[in-house]
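Hi V.,

Quick status before I head out on leave. The structure for the redesign project is tokenized and pasted below; the design run finished overnight.
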């Protein structure tokens, strides 16, 4: 059974749905200067990302699910697990968007 591309996360004490769409992935490629989707995924897999990259990825996921948020608004959001929660959320978003790439890694389903 295919996994859902949607991720549910608690941000600012509220539950949000996040999804990376083709459009938000294109937005990320441009914002992060990635040459390809694979380069974008590898950047995160190899731990070569900044806090600004996390903000952009989470913001893209929120926008992909229909939330009208800016990167600046996301920068001010909190996660119950702090910065590590945002790192985990980014990993879950990418795993949901690219299940074949991440099939060699086990990312648990559910809330982040």
């Amino acid at each position: 059974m295919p996994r859902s591309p949607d991720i549910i996360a608690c941000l600012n004490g509220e539950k949000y749905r996040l999804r990376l769409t083709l459009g938000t992935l294109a937005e990320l490629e441009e914002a992060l200067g990635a040459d390809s989707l694979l380069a974008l995924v590898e950047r995160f897999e190899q731990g070569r990302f900044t806090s600004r990259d996390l903000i952009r990825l989470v913001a893209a996921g929120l926008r992909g699910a229909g939330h009208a948020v800016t990167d600046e608004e996301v920068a001010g959001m909190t996660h119950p697990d702090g910065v590590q929660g945002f790192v985990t959320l980014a990993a879950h978003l990418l795993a949901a968007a690219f299940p074949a790439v991440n099939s060699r890694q086990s990312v648990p389903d559910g809330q982040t």
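Above is the designed sequence. Helices lie at 22-32, 37-45, 51-64, 71-75, 82-97.

G. will cover questions while I'm gone.

Best,
W.
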